[in-house]
Amino acid sequence: xxxxxxxxxxxxxxxxxxxxxxxxxxxxxxxxxxxxxxxxxxxxxxxxxxxxxxxxxxxxxxxxxxxxxxxxxxxxxxxxxxxxxxxxxxxxxxxxxxxxxxxxxxxxxxxxxxxxxxxxxxxxxxxxxxxxxxxxxxxxxxxxxxxxxx
Length: 150
What we know:
By secondary structure, this protein is an alpha+beta fold. The chain has helices spanning 6-17, 23-30, 34-46, 79-91, 116-127, and strands at residues 66-74, 95-100, 107-113, 133-140.
């Protein structure tokens, strides 16, 4: 488990919202000298608290815009079935996230496609064609009032 002090927590919090902030600006916001701030950021990266930096891209710019959360139940509860399913969804450009979960189904996917017709095609020809898939339940996202994914 990573142990972060208050300054490290503040650095992580600020960088999660403003990843392009310069070191000088970040140092001013957390009350450190630029050199001390730079050392702390490097240490947070080295320890794995900061995994990387990325641009947040509008779904419409990635062939998205229509988002569906999809609960997927498998027909078999074996490692081979899970690995095969995970390989298949990792190749599907429509799947933006895949989470192995507990409960009535094994996976929750976040799928982004241009429109309902594209989702129907994905549902039928990609997910529906996987032999290990037993159940598919779709939840169309109408709005996302809070979304902190980076």
